[in-house]
Amino acid sequence: MKLYLKKSHYNTILTHCTAGLPNESCGLLAGTEEDEEITVTKVYLLTNVDASREHFSMDPKEQLAALKDARANGYKIIGNFHSHPESPSRPSEEDKRLAFDPTIEYLILSLMEEGNPVLKAFGIDKEKNVTIHEIEITE
C-alpha cells in the first residue's frame, strides 16, 4: 500500500499538530483509493475533545461534518491522523485497540524531537497486526 500526500497537506497536518502542543491533535483524511494506491485529496482538522497529551477523541460533530463534506465532493474517508507529542510515530497499544476499521490508513506524526517531525502511515488489521505503509510527499 502506498499513500500519496501533497506537500501542502503535509504542512497543514504539521501546523495543526504543532499548534495543538502539548496535547495530541487529530483529523481525518479524504481521498481516493485505486489498487494499492491511496491519494489524499482533503485534510480535515478536528478537535481533540480529550485535550490530552497521551490520547485523543475526535469531536463527533466535526467527524460527521467531514464525512458529509467528503461524500458531497465524491471522496471517501481514507484515513485519520494524530500526533504523538512525546513518543515515536508508531501505534501505541491504545491506538491499536481503538483501530476499528482495517480498511483505512492510520497516520501518526511524532513531534518528540523538536525540528524533526516524523510522519508514518500504518494499516492495522482486525487482529491488531500493524503494517507500515509507504508515504510519498508530492508537489
From TrEMBL:
Keywords for this protein: Carboxypeptidase, Hydrolase, Metal-binding, Metalloprotease, Protease, Zinc
EC primary class: hydrolase
Record has DNA-binding as a keyword: no
GO molecular function, one term: zinc ion binding
Entry EC no(s): 3.4.17.-
Residue ranges annotated for the MPN domain, each copy included: 3-128
Superkingdom assignment: Bacteria
A biological-process GO annotation: proteolysis
Keyword RNA-binding: no
PANTHER family noted in UniProt: CYSO-CYSTEINE PEPTIDASE
Record protein name field: CysO-cysteine peptidase
Provenance organism: Blautia obeum
Name of the encoding gene: mec
